[in-house]
Amino acid sequence: QVQLVESGGGLVQPGGSLRLSCAASGKIFHINGMGWYRQAPGEQRELVATITSGGRPNYVDSVKGRFTISRDNARNTVYLQMNSLKPEDTAVYYCNAAIEVQAFRAYHYWGQGTQVTVSS
């Protein structure tokens, strides 16, 4: 069984920073792409950033230049460094990972979500 556990959310003032972490554990053969999504109240879940197993990142336009996604393959962990936070970044943030539990047998897993609130 595979689990993704997120941490690092909280309350921050506009212009502040937070760093989210998401650690995968369990029966893991290999982790392919990893990413972060977010869902604001009354809105659909949206993609924020993804990173390939080789470390190539991709961002939604609204966070480019402010957020940085990275990963530590030895720790099966993905990070999201969020700088210059805005009130519109307020949402529950979820991590996602495409994990092979054995060779050529991959599934998508989700974390439980962590609340990020940007407010003065």
Structure description:
The chain has 120 residues and is mainly beta. It has strands at 2-7, 10-12, 18-26, 30-39, 46-51, 57-59, 67-72, 77-82, 91-102, 105-110, 114-118. The protein is elongated and about 45 Å long.
Secondary structure: elements and pairs:
Layout: E1 2-7, E2 10-12, E3 18-26, E4 30-39, E5 46-51, E6 57-59, E7 67-72, E8 77-82, E9 91-102, E10 105-110, E11 114-118
Parallel strand pairs: 2-11
Antiparallel strand pairs: 1-3, 3-8, 4-5, 4-9, 5-6, 7-8, 9-10, 9-11
The H/E string reads EEEEEEEEEEE
Percentage of residues in strands:
over 45%
Q: What is the C-alpha radius of gyration, as a whole number of Å? A: 14 Å
- Main beta sheet: strand number and arrangement? 7 strands, mixed
State the distance separating the first and last CA atoms.
40 Å
Gist of the model:
The protein contains no helices and eleven strands.
Which features does this protein show?
about 120 residues; mainly beta; about 0% helix; 11 strands
